[in-house]
Amino acid sequence: MLFESSINLNLKDGEVRYYPKFFNTNEANSYFNALLKSLEWKQDDITVFGKTYLQPRLTAFYSNNKNTYKYSNITMKPHSFKGELLEIKDKIEAELQIKFTSCLANLYRDGKDSNGWHADDEKELGKNPIIASVSFGAERVFHFKHKKDSTIKSKLVLQHGSLLLMQGETQHNWLHQIPKTKKQIGKRINLTFRIIA
What we know:
Blueprint: E1 7-8, E2 15-19, H1 25-38, E3 45-48, E4 51-54, E5 58-63, E6 69-71, E7 74-76, E8 79-80, H2 83-96, E9 102-108, E10 115-118, E11 131-137, E12 140-146, E13 153-158, E14 162-167, H3 170-173, E15 174-178, E16 188-194
Parallel strand pairs: 5-8
Antiparallel strand pairs: 1-2, 2-14, 3-4, 5-9, 6-7, 9-16, 10-15, 11-14, 11-16, 12-13, 12-15
């Protein structure tokens, strides 16, 4: 049922599907309010090109095992899945028929918080990483750019309660980002479910 209402982005050398209303508005509102309070948010230092500064968003990492997750010189130690986060994970796994081990959560406090161009291609994520990315709260624009031909681009607005599924060779061939915006916008919570070997 949900698969039929999903949108294939038809990215060259990638496999990306968007489910605009994976969670209905009431579910999405309820989850947003609960996760804002219950997740163990923190702001790490990030080092890029030899310069260290505060990451422009808050993060929290959850896993059903003890495996750490490393990116941009940050090593994240996992908390255990529980409460609403576990509920969301169960719903996604039941719909997609994929079992995830971990979740990197991001809290964008306003339009100044962002996530620069990157691919989720860390070796812990395996050969062809599968990332299921859920959005709650303020809508943000999500940009794609092909790694070998930067003229090939795509973007979409990630809606409250939506799910974006990236799999296949997407992380080999595409970069993605959530850019800053000068618009006055509220908080957004993004849950990125992953499989860490």
